[in-house]
Amino acid sequence: MQTREILEQLQNGLISVDEAESFFKRAPYEEMGFAKLDTHRKVRSGFAEVIFCQGKTDEHLREIFGRIYEAEGEVMGTRASREQYEMLRDAYPQTDYDEVSGIIMISKQKELVGRIAVCTAGTADIPVAEEAARTAEFFGSYVDRIYDVGVCGIHRLLAQLDRISAANCIVAAAGMEGALASVIGGLADKPVIAVPTSVGYGASFGGVSALLTMINSCANGIAVVNIDNGFGGGYIATQINRMGVRNG
User: Fold this and answer.
1) How confident is the model at residue 224 (pLDDT cuts 50, 70, 90)?
2) What is the distance between the alpha carbons of residues 145 and 170, in angstroms, rounded to a whole number?
3) Are 62 and 32 contacting, i.e. CB atoms less than 8 angstroms apart?
4) Which residues, including other chains, have CB under 8 Å from residue 231's CB and lie 6 or more apart?
5) Which of 59, 53, 43 is nearest to 1 (CA)?
6) Which of 46, 130, 186, 195 is deepest in the core (most CB within 10 A)?
7) How far apart are CA 39 and CA 133, in angstroms?
8) What percent of the chain has pLDDT over 90?
9) What is the pTM of this model?
10) What is the mean pLDDT of the chain?
């Protein structure tokens, strides 16, 4: 729980002074030997810690997943395999898994606020876009998915400008030459988070060509995250969306 939630529960008589005091006495992280859970991250940044599942042993992942769920009432992991999902589902049957994005979660029911447009150049970019979209939704943002609007059929993008312009920010996921972010940045009056993907033929160098195009864009208002980093794009989009909701 966040500090404000604790104080509100204390004020409303839902918890005792001793229970509130015990919360504030906790260490800023929980020592697990193989991991140090950042239990105060949500207090500092507004977002609880998210698990990067790839490369973790089943035992470590199960322990981390359970501890965060116990502390927050919800938990999310990225880059999870189906085998990891099935292992966690045995312990937590309510666990949800999306095979497209590789995101695994137990999520609280929440109102989705604001608007983020998540766009892709092609259908092959959807896994990265879905990582961004599901991250934003987990953190409480409403997401409008606008897929397969790449520049080789630019009329498809132009037909969606009303939807794109209605968003507080835009995520543009593209591989190949990565031009989608520049085009959207030149048409929209909202910040664009460019997510280069590793989609492409040999000289795309696993997404490096798209990354360089996005970094060198002449359009203003574009920020770039790492190759295939849908999570990073969705996280930043949520921060921007939250500011838009507060100031709207």
Assistant:
1) very high
2) 10
3) no
4) 50, 78, 131, 132, 135
5) 43
6) 195
7) 24
8) 70
9) 0.84
10) 90
Residue 27: both structure tokens together = 């260490």
| pLDDT at res. 19 | 80
Q: Spell out the SS3 assignment of the chain.
A: CCHHHHHHHHHCCCCCHHHHHHHHHCCCCEECCCCEECCCHHHHHCCCCCEECCCCCHHHHHHHHHHHHHHHCCEEEECCCHHHHHHHHHHCCCCEEECCCCEEEECCCCCCEEEEEEEECCHHHHHHHHHHHHHHHHCCEEEEEECCCCHHHHHHHHCCHHHHHCCCEEEEEECCCCCHHHHHHHHCCCCEEEEECCCCCHHHHHHHHHHHHHHCCCCCCEEECCCCCHHHHHHHHHHHHHHHHHHC
**Hey, what are 64's tokens?**
């981390």
Beta-strand relationship, 36-37 and 30-31: antiparallel
Is the CB of residue 84 less than 8 Å from the CB of residue 58? yes
The amino acid at 71: A
Residue 130: name the closest of 119, 121, 139 by CA. Answer: 119
Residue that is written with structure tokens 């989009």 in the block? 237
Which of 47, 7, 23 has its CA nearest to residue 241?
47
Integer Cα distance of 76 and 234 in angstroms: 13
Distance CA 79, CA 62 (A): 15
Please state the length of the chain. Answer: 248
Nearest residue to 220 via CA among 182, 194, 168: 182
Written as six digits, the tokens of 47 are 């977002």
